[in-house]
Amino acid sequence: MARPSHVRDAVREALSGSTRHAWSIEDVLHELRGRRVSADFSSVFRALTFLEREGLVSRVELGDGKARFEATHGHHEHVRCDSCGAVAPVPGCPVEGTRAQVERATGFTITGHRLLFSGLCAECRGRVG
Amino acid sequence: MARPSHVRDAVREALSGSTRHAWSIEDVLHELRGRRVSADFSSVFRALTFLEREGLVSRVELGDGKARFEATHGHHEHVRCDSCGAVAPVPGCPVEGTRAQVERATGFTITGHRLLFSGLCAECRGRVG
DNA sequence: GTGGGTGCAAAACCTTTGCATCTGC
DNA sequence: GCAGATGCAAAGGTTTTGCACCCAC
C-alpha cells in the first residue's frame, strides 16, 4: 500500500527529468548518486522492473549486452553510435503500415517491432573520421 | 594452413543446410549432436566466431539475451514469436530510403539498422490464443 | 505485528579465455 | 616439432534472487 520508496521515486524522477535516453542500470545509479540519493544496484533494478510493470518505463534492447530503460513516451526508434555508444531517439517510424504485408509474408501475427539504427554521432564523426 | 576442422565444417553445414533461422549456440550444438558430430560449446562458439570473420555467418541480436547466428544472406529483417521464441525471416525492408531523413533528424551518420518484429507464430496463435 | 522496501551477497546465465592435449603436416 | 583444433574448466560481465533487517502503517 503505497509505502514510501525513495529509490523508486528517485528513479522515476531521473528518467523523466532528463534528456538522456536509454539508461543502463549503472547510468541510473550514477545519476542517483549525483543527486545524493543512496541506492543499491539491486534496488535500482527492482525499481526499474516495478516501473516497467506500471507502464511508466520501457525496457529497450540495444544489443550492447546491457539492459536499457527509458520513460515510456510516444512510439519512436533509436540510433546508437558505433563509436561511443551514445543513444538518441529517432522521431517517427518508417515501419508503420507494413504490418499487413509482414503478416502475409511470414504467417505471424505482428504485435510490435523494434528498430535500431547504427552509425556515428556528430561528435564522433568529427573526432574519429 | 587449412587443417581439418570437423566442428567448423559441421557448423557451416548445419547453418547453410537448414531452414532454421537465427541459431543460438545451443541450437547449433544440438544440431551437431543430432548429426553425431562430437563438439563442445566453446568449439562451436569459436567456429561461429571464425565463420563470422570469414563473412559466411552473421551475428544477429534478437534481444533474448542470447547470441544468434545465421548464414549470411541478402539483407532481411526478423520476426520473433513472443510465445515460443521461433524466429523467421522477413523479406524486404521497409527502412530502405529513410536514411537521409533519419540523418537529418538526428545528426548521426547512419551506417546500418536492425529491425525486429515481434508477434505470434501461426502455431502459437492456434495454441495460445 | 505485517508487509513492503533496501542492501548485501550469492546464484544464475551467457559469453569468452586459458591451458593442456592431441593431431595433421 | 609446430601450429591449429578441441575439450574442460575457469574467468568475466550482467541480471536475478535470497535473506535479514528496518521502517511506515
Secondary structure layout:
The structure is a homodimer of 129-residue chains.
Chain A lengths: L5 H11 L6 E2 H10 L6 H14 L2 E5 L5 E5 L5 E5 L5 E4 L8 H8 L2 E12 L1 H7 L1
Parallel strand pairs in A: 4-6
Antiparallel strand pairs in A: 1-3, 2-3, 4-5
Chain A binds a DNA duplex (25 and 25 nucleotides) through helix 1 and helix 3.
Structural write-up:
- The structure is a homodimer of 129-residue chains.
- The first copy, chain A, is α+β, with helices and mostly antiparallel strands.
- The first copy, chain A, has 2 domains: 6-71, Winged helix-like DNA-binding domain superfamily/Winged helix DNA-binding domain (Arc Repressor Mutant, subunit A, Orthogonal Bundle); 77-128, Ferric-uptake regulator, C-terminal dimerisarion domain (Dna Ligase, domain 1).
- The first copy, chain A, is built from 5 helices and 6 strands; from the N terminus they run H-E-H-H-E-E-E-E-H-E-H.
- The first copy, chain A, has helices spanning 6-16, 25-34, 41-54, 99-106, 122-128, and strands spanning 23-24, 57-61, 67-71, 77-81, 87-90, 109-120.
- The longest helix of chain A is centred in the middle third of the chain and has 14 residues, at 41-54.
- The first copy, chain A, starts with 5 loop residues before the first helix and ends with a helix.
- Chains A and B meet through strand 5, helix 4 and strand 6 of A and strand 5, helix 4 and strand 6 of B.
- Strand 6 of chain A pairs antiparallel with strand 6 of chain B.
- Chain A binds a DNA duplex (25 and 25 nucleotides) through residues 1, 3-8, 25, 38-43, 45-47, 49, 65-67.
